[in-house]
Amino acid sequence: MSKELTITQQKILDFIIEKRATGKIPTLAEIAGHFGYRNRSTVRQHLQALERKGYIKRNPNVSRGIELLTEDKFFVPRPVLGEVAAGNPLTIYPDAIDTIELPTIARMPKDSFLLKVKGDSLKDAYIFTGDVVIVNPNTQPRNGQIVVAVLDDAAVVKRFYKKRNRIELHSENPEYEPIVIEKNYSGFKLVGVVIGVYRSMERKVG
Description:
Mean pLDDT: 81
Strand content: 25-35%
CATH superfamily of the largest domain: Umud Fragment, subunit A
Number of domains: 2
Radius of gyration: 20 Å
Shape: elongated
Distance between the termini: 40 Å
Structural class: alpha+beta
CATH architecture of the largest domain: Ribbon
CATH topology of the largest domain: Umud Fragment, subunit A
Number of strands: 11
Order of helices and strands: HHHEEEEEEEEEEE
Strand order of the largest sheet: 4-3-5-6-11-7-8-9-10
């Protein structure tokens, strides 16, 4: 196990880990398409090398027949600190409400944390109820970025826009009106910028 990988093999392994964390193990065709290979045999050769080196196990008779060996090497448990509303505001709880396994390649800047989404106001941004967002509190948001904010002691996740005399929090669902906050309103506080979204393999989205 753990024989040195070539740059290409490492990229393919990272892609498999990423897809495993956010959806399904990729097919041979999906790997070929992602890396621009016209011939699937090229992908097959790289997968055979990953198998020889002890990183994966393949079942050629199954469409998604790639198994990551020793998954604890590629995934680490992370606490989910609460729920954030993609819809009406919700409370962020002070203690962990859940634990999920994120891939070790996931970008988790210092002080960043996880929140679980509840609601459908960001469905057109492909963020759904039950998804987990990574929130970075150490960066200032730019217009159009998705942020977590506290509004009157409740947490929301919305798209951020700073206007001249106000802040607007927009949904990605036409059923929801923008939330308009007047400048210097004491009940508003930015928590951080959403830098990643993860979805359980077992969960289906609408």
